Amino acid sequence: MVELATLLLAIAVILITTRAVSSLFRRLNQPPVIGEMVAGIMLGPSLLGWVAPDISSALFPTQSQALLEGLSALGLVLFMFLVGMEHDPVLMRGRGPTAVLISHASMTIPFALGMVLALFLYPRLGEQHVSFTQFALFIGTSVSITAFPVLARMLVDSGLARTPVGVLALTAAAVNDVTGWLALAAVLPMMGVGRDPHGLPLWLSIPGTVLFALLMLTVGRRLLAHIGTRFRSRGLTMGLLATMLLVAILCAWTTEQLGVHPLFGAFVAGLAMPRDPALADAMRLRVLDVTIVLLLPLFFALSGLRTRVGLISGAQMWLYFALVLGVAIAGKFSGAALSARATGLPWREAASLGVLVNTRGLIELVVLNVGLEAGIISPTLFTMLVLMAIVTTLMTMPLLSLLYPRGAAGREAAAPP
What we know:
mainly alpha, Na+/H+ antiporter like fold
């Protein structure tokens, strides 16, 4: 019972801290998720563990951290399931080729730059037991991710959601999100992440994952069509809700068994659900609030417990961080802005897209935690990449307000297409 009491107290402290800090960041015109990321760092060794180490160790003992990790993993599975459900293919109409070009350019260019950066970082910050290929694949992946949910919130808050540049950014980010998870599903087995040494070999894991995704999005989608029919006739009943959650959990379990991260399975399960906005809205009302308010803050707190800002000490380490940050910004911005300009968009819109796709958040932290747990990156490099995710997301709204003042955004949104 002492362990349960400690766990409950830790959850209470996490909720109070994340709500308070995220509210402060919201008032500063920043997305609440950044506040939750910062709150997690505050609860870790970078602040609480430094100021009051006894309180920190009492609040977050090893046993409680294991339980928090399990709860946060459930929250991530539910969140990615909802993200998959809300991917709207209607956004692609009339914008498919442009969005795909911008999305893929904003991934391939930073991925390539990340691989080049790995040449410099590997002999300095790489782990001896990790091959250069594994290290380079991870760095390339970690700097090429865009946070679709955070970007959507920013576009709504800035009044750009219904403007041409906002819709294009959202569409490109949606393509980026799907492509990113598909790429991650392929890359993680190559890096040996989450693989059971007695599990499936690599030559079975990747084709198995592809086959799973194809079956879910074809046969599985037809089998799950009855969910939409039942919802339209009876609403979101408890039985229907249980069925949908069971599908998400079983899909997450399947990809875990295939040697790929379970979040990919949950995401594919969401994509396979009926494309019914009313059903997605009903699931949001039932599941999203508890997930965002209760479960995801636990993940941010765990990420904060693993982030040690003190590891970045001395001019040399801060130089390495500056290189990571510079590559992350330059790769995403140039990939999106130059490809958007090549499609005929004016420079202001192209630059706005470059700024928007630099947004990072939850998915970035998921990838970084996977890399840290697998031993692909060191705690020092993990901390650098976490700070990179925070800085690149913090800079989005100030830069966007310079390129698109709220008045201009409102006039463009009101203008006829």
